[in-house]
From TrEMBL:
Function recorded in the entry: Catalyzes the transfer of the diacylglyceryl group from phosphatidylglycerol to the sulfhydryl group of the N-terminal cysteine of a prolipoprotein, the first step in the formation of mature lipoproteins.
Annotated a 1,2-diacyl-sn-glycero-3-phospho-(1'-sn-glycerol) binding sites: R151
Signal peptide boundaries: none
Location within or outside the cell: Cell membrane
InterPro entries in UniProt: Lgt
Any matching Pfam family: LGT
Pathway membership, UniProt: Protein modification; lipoprotein biosynthesis (diacylglyceryl transfer)
Protein name: Phosphatidylglycerol--prolipoprotein diacylglyceryl transferase
EC number: 2.5.1.145
Family: Belongs to the Lgt family.
Length: 317
């Protein structure tokens, strides 16, 4: 349902294969790592590294990304889980209010970045006998590509939604599955108001059935912040790919990593102005001038600037 440049966003949960539902968010992770591998393969072959080393690198990177992203979310945004529901930190379940399956929800990109960087210390010593910066200068290329698909997965999941805006804002959307779960527009409330117990059918009815227009009108238009971020990351990926293949930037230790940190986290910082609050330590008065995501992005940008200036002075890998 489209209104001028605006729309009601109510996608299917995934691709129904009959025996299995392939969820779009899961598919986004598969694409992120699958395409990332193909992007890295010619880089490794060019620099006389084996495909076997690449396979090991990606396995370690996958584990580091998932663990780092999950722990980062809990530490930065939901620290109460350490004492309220510790099993949910690393398991796809929650025990509150009762035991139920949740999937691996709640992932923070800042935590993923830290996890990857720490893991590369191990990779550099045990798997790829190259310098620490050699590995990171190259791994950031597929990481930036993966970031595009993860944000598209967030978009398909109607999560990390933008702040409310006016209906005439460009690309403003109603994320009818993205509102507060326990709020007046959350899933339980929508089921009750439509008298339809299947969640997908209830949301479909709200989006398409004129008798539920009053409910639909109650949903605010929001910025599609996930798309803004994904589009920004396309440019990050393209710039890094160009710098590696068409310039001598790959021979400056830490330079590509620095460019990645500056560009990606600057985009994140800007897009945070359009995002709905994700919580975290921004709730404390001393930190409420910026969002949690913005505070966490600043150190990465500063480190990136240092690496770029350092790499210009030291042109050896």
């Amino acid at each position: 349902m489209i209104y001028a440049l605006n729309m009601v966003w109510n996608p299917a949960e995934g691709i129904d294969l009959g025996f299995f539902m392939l969820r779009f968010y899961s598919l986004s992770w598969v694409l992120a790592f699958g395409l990332g591998w193909y992007v890295m393969k010619p880089i490794f072959l060019r620099e006389n590294e084996t495909v076997e080393s690449l396979d090991k690198l990606f396995v370690y990177t996958l584990v580091a990304t998932m663990l780092g992203a999950r722990l980062g979310h809990v530490i930065f945004y939901q620290s109460e889980l350490f004492y309220e529901d510790p099993l949910s930190i690393l398991l796809p379940i929650s025990t509150k209010p009762s035991l139920h399956f949740t999937g691996f929800a709640g992932l923070a990109s800042h935590g993923a970045a830290i996890g990857i960087i720490v893991t590369m210390f191990y990779i550099q010593r045990r798997v790829i006998k190259r310098s620490f910066f050699w590995i990171l200068d190259r791994i950031v290329i597929p990481v930036s590509l993966g970031a595009i698909f993860i944000r598209l997965g967030n978009f398909m999941n109607s999560e990390i939604i933008g702040k409310p805006t006016s209906a005439d804002s460009f690309m403003a959307m109603k994320f009818i599955k993205g509102e507060d779960y326990l709020g007046p527009l959350g899933e339980p409330a929508i089921k009750a108001q439509t008298n339809i117990q299947d969640a997908q059918q209830a949301f479909n009815a709200v989006a398409t059935d004129p008798q539920f227009k009053t409910i639909l009108d109650a949903f605010p238009y929001r910025y599609p912040a996930q798309l803004y971020e994904a589009i920004g990351y396309v440019f990050v990926f393209a710039i890094l790919l160009f710098l590696y293949w068409k310039t001598e930037a790959r021979n400056k230790a830490g330079y590509l990593l620095g460019i990645f940190l500056i560009l990606l986290w600057s985009i994140r910082f800007v897009v945070e102005f359009f995002k709905d609050s994700q919580g975290g330590f921004e709730k404390y008065p001393i930190f409420n001038a910026l969002s949690t995501g913005q505070w966490l992005s600043i150190p990465f940008v500063i480190i990136g600037c240092y690496l770029v200036f350092r790499a210009k002075a030291d042109k050896t890998v």
